Amino acid sequence: MNTTISRRTILSFLGLFGLSLKPAVGKYMADPHPVTEDKETLPPHNEALLMVWRTQQDAICKLELGHAVSEQKKQKEYVASAERWWFDTEGRQWRVKRPFDPGFIDSTHWFFVDYVIEGKTVASWSVDTRKKTVDIRKL
């Protein structure tokens, strides 16, 4: 009697077993990162940033204009300060983070949003996505 099982037989068995087991396991295991089909839902960090953009447009424009005026004084440009943002090459960054890890105090809806121009933080906001509030923070 030959008790030797070929490698092909083992791989075929494992392939069939794996394929047949996957749908059964997938049915009962929860997805650790469920993807919502709702197109209106954003990740929480993105929602905080969007709240700042929507509610702080005037403040952001004033910051940009102030930056343009200060940079224009350093350079001899022929572009008006209000038009400078079409031509400048300074980097901008938006940083969004929670003030601390959720735990004893629930900070899942609290965020700090910072606006950075050329490595310097020029504005910062405190955002509560649950209450839908945006408050300016002192630097």
Descriptive account of the structure:
The structure is a single chain. The chain is α+β, with helices and mostly antiparallel strands and 139 residues long. It has a domain at 44-137. The protein has three helices and four strands. The chain has helices spanning 7-28, 44-55, 57-74; strands at residues 92-97, 110-117, 120-128, 133-137. A four-stranded antiparallel beta sheet has the order 1-2-3-4, covered by helices on one side. The chain is extended and about 85 Å long. 8% of the residues are buried. The model is unreliable at 19-33 (pLDDT under 50).
Topology diagram in text:
Layout: H1 7-28, H2 44-55, H3 57-74, E1 92-97, E2 110-117, E3 120-128, E4 133-137
Antiparallel strand pairs: 1-2, 2-3, 3-4
Derived from helix and strand composition plus strand pairing, the structural class reads alpha+beta
Task: Please state how the strands of the largest beta sheet are arranged side by side.
Answer: 1-2-3-4
Helix content: 25-40%
Instruction: Assign an overall shape.
Output: extended
Give the overall pLDDT as a whole number: 79
Q: Helical element count?
A: 3
Uncertain ranges: 19-33
Biggest sheet architecture: 4 strands, antiparallel
Number of strands: 4
> Proportion of β residues?
15-25%
Radius of gyration: 27 Å
Distance between the termini: 83 Å
Order of helices and strands: HHHEEEE
Quick recap of the structure?
It is built from three helices and four strands.
